[in-house]
Amino acid sequence: MAINAIDNSGHYMGGVKPMMRLKRYSFVLFRFLVTSIGLTQRLPYIALYLSGLVVVLALYKVAKTHRLLIRYHSAMIRLFFLLNGIRLKYDKATLSKLSHAAIISNYFSGIDLAIMLVVLPYEKLQFLPPQFFKAFPFKSLLHLMGFYPKETDFDIRNYATKSFHADPYAKAGYLLIESVRVASQSHQAIPYVLMLAIKHQLRIVYLELRGNENSKFATLFKPRTITITIIDEAVVSKRIDLTVMHYRRVLERFESYGKSRRYMRVNNRKASVPPHLKPSIYVAKKPEPIKPESTTVPE
Length: 299
Fold this sequence. Notes:
Layout: H1 16-63, H2 67-83, E1 86-90, H3 92-95, E2 101-106, H4 111-119, E3 124-128, H5 130-135, H6 139-144, E4 147-149, H7 167-171, E5 175-180, H8 192-200, E6 203-210, E7 224-234, H9 240-271, H10 279-282
Parallel strand pairs: 1-7, 2-5, 2-6, 3-4, 3-5
Antiparallel strand pairs: 6-7
């Protein structure tokens, strides 16, 4: 067919480019419609959340307690998960007893932060990159819910004597939580909570979230399950390098799961490519090599 023809220079001929533009515009329009429908369906939930938040904040100003605020958001997150087909699988008895520890988990998306808010006990702090607070307009609400920016101005020479805003919470037995992007840990410093664990001799608990990469595909009629498990625990060694080496080994386990999920997604995408769009159809056939003429010198 002329639409799939290729000229001698390897470029497309015919109407391939207009067809590709049409498909691209159709996909953008379809995605816009799906997003609009999703937002419309969530308007009642957003209205319910905002109306309840006004009441809870009014009670907070009177009672001056964070517990009601945390429980309200935990309940609203659970309702959101229920309506969107996100199921959580974890050992409630074990996680509810955690205290005096630093929690490090793998991070995939913002939903992981909500999961930590739901499954872990009340006395906890979650540390996020400082950029997150610059982009979020309601910083005071984040602080009330236990989200704080992590500090980055420390090193091996001054961490033991430097004062951090999380020090009082570490001494009081709060859980110090940080979700790390596994891919970026190869060129970033150790997590903030790992440094706090070394400084205050806290137990280190490593949580792994599996299935969170599929949460965006979950629906009420086709739910997806996210599993939260403790894959390792450690105590701070007298030698700091041994504690950091143990963290790196756990990081490799996080990374192996991430790579397996990426491998599966790539294979699924390859398997879903229609036959008429496979690259082999559009690749020009390589010319056969020219056989050299005989170099025998005639007598």
